[in-house]
Amino acid sequence: MAPKRSLKERPLDAIYYTFFLIHLLCSLTVNLLVIWPTRAQTIPGLDVVYRLLKGVVDDYMTQTNDPFMLVNWGLVERPWEFAYLKVFLCIEAFVQVPSFIMGMIGLQKDSASIYPLLLAYSSTAIVTTATYMHAVIIAPSLSDTTLDPLSKFYAMSDKGRWTILNPTIVFLLVPGIMWVDMMVRLGRLVKKGAQVEAQRGRAVVEKNGKAH
Questions:
Q1: Are residues 33 and 53 in contact, defined by beta-carbon separation less than 8 angstroms?
Q2: For residue 99, how many C-alpha atoms fall within 13 Å in the half-sphere facing its CB?
Q3: For the EXPERA domain, which residue ranges apply (predicted)?
Q4: What whole-number distance in Å separates Cα of residue 119 and Cα of residue 73?
Q5: Which of 21, 53, 55, 177 has the fewest beta carbons closer than 10 A?
């Protein structure tokens, strides 16, 4: 069995670990702020944190008109608009956040058993992030003077659009690299396992042949 290596000896894993840590903090303090329990919003000390974070979110929404925030804070014109982004919120809360935690633990331990989870996470992240980015890219522009009232409600300034897209590119790039990396690693493990099983099979055949 190969000796366990530290994160410093595994550059890609160190990047994944850092990415998970940053994403976890962003998720818990910004993206998932809308589902903080009401009680947590009134606990002395924590209520101050909540108000500060809510102020940051409000400023961000004002600057960007981010559809993800609009729909999850109930600020859309019709309930069904951008409804899929509500599903993405659930995926982030109940699939991705646990994946961040378990992923960091597995990466810290240099455990290959975490590879299937990282492949599953990266697959969902690519789909949700690419879909979200597409919605931002095709959103109407505030500079368009021909917009109808509904389109104008969801329109973005160029600055707001790039405020969203610039950091989001990283949240697509890292899972993309992770997906390819995990496919390669798992492919190697499967190949190695198949070779071991083949060797065991030949050993059994030879043993039975000698017994006769």
A1: yes
A2: 23
A3: 12-179
A4: 30
A5: 55
Residue 4 domain-assigned (yes or no): no
**How many domains does the chain contain in total?**
1
Q: Which two tokens stand for residue 33?
A: 């702020």
Question: Which residue range(s) make up the domain with 196?
Answer: 10-211
CA distance 117 to 123: 10
Would 94 be classed as within a structural domain? yes
Residues 6 or more apart from 32 whose CB is under 8 A from it?
89, 92, 93, 97
Residue range 68-90, pLDDT digits in tens:
999 999 999 888 999 999 999 99
Lookup result for tokens 């109808």: 148
Q: Which structure tokens are listed for 83?
A: 């409804």
Give the Cα separation of 175 and 181 in Å (integer).
10
Residue among 134, 154, 136 at smallest CA distance from 144: 154
